[in-house]
């Protein structure tokens, strides 16, 4: 625990090492768990303190991460807030009280009327309302599910008295994301019919037809439909989840200090042949390694120096008298899964087959279907 919480809280920036002196770092897998443990301990201590010192008994209290909702007597609200803020000087809460008998909590607006409450869907004023756009390059079923999930969420959270207002909100949000009006109306009607049918139906337990396995694959327009059909026909227990390689992290500048290429592992790399004096070659060798790239490059250099023909790169250099540019190696891809990395290596060789000096057997295991993607 000390190693994970204290000794391991460091990062690099501009070539320097820095230690985080307080709190858990963002991105650490342990941070959410520790935050939850701290919040539970904070609430346990607060509730006990309020009971013993102020004779205050909170009738209803719930939390989600660091958001707390409680029903208390108004005269006790300030005492409860002060007690919460006593737990630690760097953990300080703010309080929001109901206004006009309403109070938002997460994505719910809670309405109080006499001795009862009614819930309605709530979006913060800063919410952009942006969803997967109907015109975006995504599988059609993802767009439909996005709209269905929004409709389901709003209808499930909200009391029947807010139905018409929420239908207008749904139409506005989906229309702003370019969903056709007829599709929006059809999906809303489906949900309303489903709710009405469920109210008059006895719940049944759905039988499972085997364990389903999910695999993530890159989304390719038009090609994915054929792939889906083949998988559903021949492997009914396999489900494909499509992803895009053009992500936000590939668009915006990386904020972390880049790792030296020679220290990176699980990579597919490219080495250029410099030829020899007065003779340009520009052929490339593509390889892969799970170890640090610097270790693999040292092996390439040793093979050349010892005149070993163990790789296509060494064979090319020794037979032609050329020089491999080991100092300027280029990382093409990073992939931790070994089989996937070998597949990527073969695809890269095929992609640059006019320039590569790799052996033919390096691409023998690639299915013909992959050629359509290159």
Quick recap of the structure?
The chain has about 375 residues and is of the alpha+beta class. Helices cover about 40% and strands about 15% of the residues.
Structural commentary:
The protein has 374 residues and is an alpha+beta fold. The protein is extended and about 90 Å long. α2 (31-54) packs across α3, α4 (140-157) packs across α6 (181-199) and α5 (163-176) runs antiparallel to α6. The chain is 39% helix and 17% strand.
Structural class: alpha+beta
Order of helices and strands: HEEHEEHEEEHHHEHEHEEHHEHH
Biggest sheet overview: 3 strands, antiparallel
Rg, alpha carbons:
30 Å
| Average pLDDT for all residues | 88
Oligomer: single chain
**If strands are numbered along the chain, what order do they take across the biggest sheet?**
5-6-7
Question: With helices defined by DSSP (H or I, 4 residues minimum), what is the helix count?
Answer: 12
Total beta-strand segments:
12
Features:
three-stranded antiparallel beta sheet, 12 strands, 12 helices, alpha+beta, 374 residues
Give me the secondary-structure topology.
Layout: H1 2-7, E1 10-13, E2 16-19, H2 31-54, E3 60-64, E4 67-71, H3 77-85, E5 102-105, E6 108-113, E7 116-121, H4 140-157, H5 163-176, H6 181-199, E8 213-218, H7 223-234, E9 238-243, H8 248-251, E10 267-272, E11 284-289, H9 293-305, H10 312-320, E12 330-334, H11 338-351, H12 368-371
Parallel strand pairs: 8-9
Antiparallel strand pairs: 1-2, 3-4, 5-6, 6-7, 10-11, 10-12
Helix pairs in contact: 2-3, 4-5, 4-6, 5-6, 9-10
């Amino acid at each position: 625990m000390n190693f994970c919480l204290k000794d391991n809280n460091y990062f690099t920036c501009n070539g320097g090492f820095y230690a985080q002196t307080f709190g858990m770092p963002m991105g650490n897998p342990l941070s959410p768990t520790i935050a939850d443990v701290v919040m539970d301990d904070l609430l346990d201590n607060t509730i006990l303190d309020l009971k013993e010192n102020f004779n205050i008994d909170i009738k209803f209290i719930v939390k989600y991460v660091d958001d707390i909702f409680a029903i208390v007597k108004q005269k006790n609200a300030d005492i409860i807030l002060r007690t919460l803020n006593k737990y630690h000087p760097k953990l300080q809460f703010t309080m929001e009280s109901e206004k006009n008998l309403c109070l938002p909590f997460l994505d719910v607006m809670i309405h109080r009327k006499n001795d009862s409450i009614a819930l309605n869907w709530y979006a913060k004023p800063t919410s952009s309302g942006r969803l997967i756009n109907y015109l975006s390059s995504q599988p059609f079923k993802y767009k439909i599910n996005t709209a269905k999930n929004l409709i389901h969420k709003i209808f499930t959270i909200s009391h029947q008295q807010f139905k018409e207002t929420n239908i207008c909100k749904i139409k506005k949000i989906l229309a702003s994301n370019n969903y056709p009006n007829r599709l929006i109306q059809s999906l809303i009607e489906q949900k309303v019919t489903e709710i009405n049918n469920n109210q008059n139906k006895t719940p049944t337990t759905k039988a499972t037809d085997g364990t389903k396995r999910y695999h993530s694959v890159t989304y390719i327009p038009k090609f994915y439909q054929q792939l889906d059909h083949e998988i559903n026909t021949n492997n009914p227990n396999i489900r494909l989840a499509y992803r895009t390689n053009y992500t936000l992290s590939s668009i915006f500048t990386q904020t972390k200090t880049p790792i030296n290429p020679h220290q990176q592992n699980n990579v597919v790399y490219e080495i250029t042949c410099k030829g020899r004096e007065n003779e340009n070659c520009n052929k490339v060798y593509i390889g892969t390694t799970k170890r640090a790239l610097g270790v693999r490059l040292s092996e390439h250099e040793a093979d050349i120096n010892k005149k070993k023909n163990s790789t296509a790169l060494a064979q090319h250099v020794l037979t032609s008298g050329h020089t491999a540019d080991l100092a300027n190696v280029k990382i093409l891809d990073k992939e931790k899964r070994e089989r996937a990395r070998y597949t990527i290596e073969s695809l890269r060789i095929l992609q640059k087959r006019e320039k590569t000096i790799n052996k033919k057997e390096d691409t023998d295991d690639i299915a013909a279907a992959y050629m359509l993607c290159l």
